[in-house]
Structure formats: C-alpha cells, structure tokens
Design a protein that fits this description.
Number of domains: 1
Structural class: mainly alpha
CATH architecture: Orthogonal Bundle
Radius of gyration: 36 Å
Helix content: over 70%
Strand content: under 5%
Oligomer: single chain
Shape: rod-shaped
Distance between the termini: 56 Å
CATH topology: Helix Hairpins
Number of helices: 2
C-alpha cells in the first residue's frame, strides 16, 4: 500500500512541477511582450519627435505626447520589474518542486531495489530448498538401491 501511495505522490509532484514550468513559460512570454512594447513606444516616440521637429503644428501637441510617453514607459518598466520578481519566485518554486520530486523518486527507487533484493533472496532460498530436496531424494534413492 505504501509503495502505491508513493507512486501517486510522484505523479502528483510531476504534475505540480509541470504546472510551475508552464507558469514560468507564460511569465517569460509576457516579459518578452513587455520588452516589445517598450521598444515599440520608444520607436513611436522617436518618430513623433521627428515629425514635431519638421512640422510646427505637430510640435504644439508634442508636449502632451511626451507626458503620455513618459507615463506609458514608466508603466511598462514597472510591469517588467514586477514580472521579473514573479519569474524569480516561480524559478525558486520550480527548484523546490524538483527537489521534492527527486526525493520521492530516489526513495521509490530504493524501495524497489530493496523489494527486488528481498524477492531474489527468497527465490534463492526456495531454489536452495528445492536443490537440497532433490539431493536428499537422489541420495535416498542411491542408498536404497545399494542395500
């Protein structure tokens, strides 16, 4: 019963580890999207600045655009920082989940090995007993023929 329960725990820990790895993948993809957003608004800013330098009318609204750009850039940078902290947290969780999984797997392997050795020992004892019985019968048959 205990052996079966340990295999269930191993499956459960594998599932939990896979779930954490999927979460890390999502966070890494989100981080890439945030960096893409940061690069996009930087390119847009450069383009708006170029247009404002060339066109007097566009220059009138450039101040409002700069305010928006700074706020948006700060928002993206804050999101990147928060996401980075979450990535570090999930990586720590993955390491811990992996350690726990390995502990259960090693324990199960040890139990399986002991069980196999015990079975081999019992089989050896049974085979020894069979061999002794055959030897005794042969010896009895041999003694009985000579008398």
């Amino acid at each position: 019963m205990a052996r079966k329960d340990l295999k269930t725990l191993i499956r459960l820990h594998k599932w939990a580890l896979d779930d954490k790895q999927r979460k890390l993948g999502q966070l890494l993809r989100f981080e890439a999207a945030l960096y893409n957003r940061k690069d996009l608004i930087a390119r847009q800013y450069a383009e708006e600045e170029r247009v404002a330098n060339e066109n007097q009318t566009a220059a009138l609204t450039f101040g409002a655009y700069v305010e928006w750009y700074i706020a948006e850039r700060d928002r993206v940078l804050q999101a990147i920082e928060e996401n980075r902290l979450e990535i570090l947290k999930v990586r720590d969780e993955i390491l811990e989940a992996f350690r726990e999984l390995k502990t259960f797997e090693i324990t199960q392997e040890s139990r399986d090995k002991r069980e196999k050795e015990e079975l081999e020992r019992k089989m050896g004892a049974v085979l020894d007993e069979i061999g002794l019985n055959l030897y005794r019968r042969k010896k009895q048959d041999g003694d009985g023929d000579g008398a």
